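User: Please predict the structure of the protein below. I'd like the answer in structure-token form so I can feed it into my own downstream comparison script.

Assistant: Understood. Taking the following sequence of 353 residues as input:
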Amino acid sequence: MIRTEWYELAVDGGRTLKFPTMGPQPGEPKHTEQSDITAATEVYSTVPQQYGGIIKRGAWCWISTGNVLEITALRTGQTIATYGFVEPRGYENCCIRCVEELFPQNNETVLLAISLECFSAAESGCSLVAIYSIERNQVLSCMELPLHITALAFVSSNCCRRSLLQNFDGCIAVGSEEGVILLLDLNINKLINTCDERLKAPIGQLTDDIVKCRIVDYNLQLAEIHRTFREARQDGVNFGLQVEAINDPCAVQSLLPIDLTLGLAVGTEDGRLILYDLAELQIVHNGGRLPQPQRRLAPIVKMSYIEPVDDPRCCLYVWALHDTNVNLTAVMHTVVYDKRVAEDDGFYYFEVS
């Protein structure tokens, strides 16, 4: 059972702070073999749109301008790393659209998934997902997808329990302008080992490897999915699962993995909140547009959830932030389940009987 309650919040922009303007040239590379590449970074005639976010538990921030990513320490303002997705590295006419931190609880290394929109006259366009290591200042892997990516979200190992995803070595959810949602296997340990071997080589590799992704539909036979997964690992290509398609497909604006339900919340451009069960890779709830008179296109741009401590039911509150172009409206959705299931390691989740 799902019940929705509506609350409207006023947003005060008086305490906001702009990111500093970043120059088009990246900083000094950490590896000498990259110096020629750095010199070739594109200089924009106009200042591209900037995006930014907080990573490493509030210690660092990332700022993107066009095809250049900069990592900065928040306390000191020091530049930690800079990376340009430029033509000498194998990227042509790319622009950064989304950045997502991977394995945020890992204190040893900081990894980012970066989606790049590609503009090519020869094709209708595609997107790349680059896995970038800040400490190594290297792209560990870059996969090409025949979609226009609009959202990324890291899916934790807890959220992957009791599903096909538990075979993945790191998982990321991808949302697209076409309304397609993919779950990608990062195969992260192999990527890190391969990158370390590449750095030890006498002649460094100047271009990043861009590989295809082998995508299968969720409703294939289980044996067929496992076979394709094994073959993708053996062939050195990426593997992805496409979940149940959204009715009346609409661009995905935001993604929120929910450990408590082993699920994924999806916010769309037309304001719908869609809930997936990742164990079945199927939709369990599709709805949640704003009520009149705010129902005009109001995309869900951000989501969060909490488990209420004072509610005796097995439930959680999902907050959806809608952008109406006039103001921001926060909507709280109450999601109620039948029972709580406890695991041996202390983790628990909700499910329907």
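That's the full token string. Residues 67 and 95 are 5 Å apart (CA to CA).
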